[in-house]
Amino acid sequence: MKIHQYYVYIITNASNNVLYTGVTNDLADRVLQHKDKMNKGFSAQYQCGKLVYYEEFQWIQDAIAREKQIKAGSRKKKIALIVNENPDCNDLSIGWYD
């Protein structure tokens, strides 16, 4: 049986004042797309490319449900989620592309 991996992630900009939540099956590639502004949308407009949070799931349905739950939550809840796992809001993708 094939092992699936899906990710829910939150990225921000350099000053940590904008949050973008998304879902993907290839986290490293998707974060690179955000960093390179390959898709002209919210994350490109607001210079979001700093990965500050992610969760891994085996099933896409679970990942989508979690993404919706996070998106429906307040900014305060999103920040608490990030700070709980990544208190300094470091870019978790540092070193992925060397």
From TrEMBL:
<feature type="domain" description="GIY-YIG">
    <location>
        <begin position="4"/>
        <end position="80"/>
    </location>
</feature>
<dbReference type="InterPro" id="IPR000305">
    <property type="entry name" value="GIY-YIG_endonuc"/>
</dbReference>
<dbReference type="Pfam" id="PF01541">
    <property type="entry name" value="GIY-YIG"/>
</dbReference>
<dbReference type="InterPro" id="IPR050190">
    <property type="entry name" value="UPF0213_domain"/>
</dbReference>
<comment type="similarity">
    <text>Belongs to the UPF0213 family.</text>
</comment>
<protein>
    <submittedName>
        <fullName>GIY-YIG nuclease family protein</fullName>
    </submittedName>
</protein>
<dbReference type="InterPro" id="IPR035901">
    <property type="entry name" value="GIY-YIG_endonuc_sf"/>
</dbReference>
